[in-house]
Amino acid sequence: MTAAALPPAHQDPRRWLTLVIVVMSVVIAALDGTILNVAIPTILREFHTELPSLQWVVTGYSLTFASLLIIGGRLGDIYGARRVFIIGASFFGVGSLLAAVSQSVPTLFLGEALIEGIGASLMLPSTLSILSNTFQGRERSTAFAAWGATGGAAIAFGPVVGGFLTTNYSWRWAFGINVIIVPIAITGAMVFIRKTPTASRQPRLDFQGAAMIAFGVFLFVFGLSQGSAYGWLAPIKDLTIGGTVIWPQSMPVSVIVVTFVLAVAILTAFVFVERAKERSGNDPLFEFGLLRYKGFRYGLLTTVVLAMGQFSLLFVLPVLLQDGKHLTAAQNGLWMLPSGLLIIVGAQVGGRLTRRIGVVSVVRIGLLFEAVGLTTIALVVSPHLTFVSLLPGYLVFGFGVGFASSQLTNVILSEIPAAKAGSASGANVTSRQIGAALGIAVIGSLISVLTTSHATSSIRASGLAPALKARSLVAVKLDGVNFAPPSGATSRDVAELRHILESAVAAGARPALFFAATVVAIGAILSLLIPRASLVVTTSPEFEVIETFEAFDSLDLQRAATAAERNGPADR
Fold this sequence. Notes:
The protein is an all-alpha fold. 76% of the residues lie in helices and 1% in strands. Helix 6 (138-168) packs antiparallel against helix 11 and helix 8 runs antiparallel to helix 9.
């Protein structure tokens, strides 16, 4: 069938196969964001390395992905979403293969953090553009809700699958899965996904803008995600890359301060340069004129605030369950599974309700559900927390995520011209990344300060021996939620210190969750500024989870890996 003879997109029977291909791609990206983290203690021993070097693998993937999203979306606008999707999937597959056969941290970093990160930044924004141009009307809601449900299942099962593969086979199969699926997705894309119509004049790629946005977002996200590690103002440890000290602890200010100053300067310059190019018609990387669309403008603002609150929970719960309840990372995944399953249900129900009450109303209802769910979880948090007591809040929260996040991109892209859907999609996902990183930075500092303060007070008031009390105070101030009883403590002392830590973590988690609920409630208020959208275009709640999971799980698994190093060669 020739291009001229192709049926309209909304009548093309291949559109449902397109959905299958796109969903497969989102699944492997979602799994890749969570499945490897469970295996970090095992990789540490196999590569005979230390945690900081391996953590750069996880952090590097996040930074690469976030830095190149807008560029990837713009490339889809210029060269066609299908073509860029295939190129991105190819990069992703090559990176997965290299990571699967790696024998050292540098090789793993190259495959996972760099090549896979580049591939994901090209592939994922293109999937949004492909679906928004393939499906029309009510079918858009159905298609993207299915995508959201599948991605939700991948996120929910990621830690469980990772634990199963690592325990029974090898952590390398976390990447081997991608090596199998990617060729199928590429072949399917070449056969079933429609080519994007070529514009009469192909825009030029704005290399200056691309360099500025890549460096600016990289520095900004790095600062947000690593502030607690290197110190927000005063340096607390050396910044070391590849064994070379880049910023020593002896410097008068933290590297994070310098990072934020450079990021703000570069991003401010980016705005001025891009607006000047837009006025002169010189093909800017991102058209700030798109912000005149109220759905796009207020949708992005709501997305940033929503991501801050939503992913605060994804940071707090691993701290609460693993440091407060002493669960393993795999058990933590099982406890969080009901929330992921309710995301699936919520995405489907929300997609159907858009036909009756409208997309914006579904988003607003979802935001309210999320706020109620977070509040419910906060109310039951205690050292004696059980799965049953946590379940009601989980269910309400997951249902709300399925409603709100699955439909918010609907609003953001509804007024955007098809020719600019790629760059708009990249801006959408970038705003989610920044919001999530900001939420994790704030919530991480909040729970760390509150936990340390409560534990310090409890240790001072305890009946521990003075020497043990002094050593414990030093340890808790140094390690925070990662605190472990000092060596030489009796079993009774260890039990008391463990109880103190459990109570401290619960005391820190409760106000942190109330903060997250407040932020989501603010997002619900901001959503009142969004006009009712006429088009139905939804996206996956897991699209924002994929890389944010990298940010919070890298910290989560730092605790798991540290515990593994303390306890010897046995897996936790």
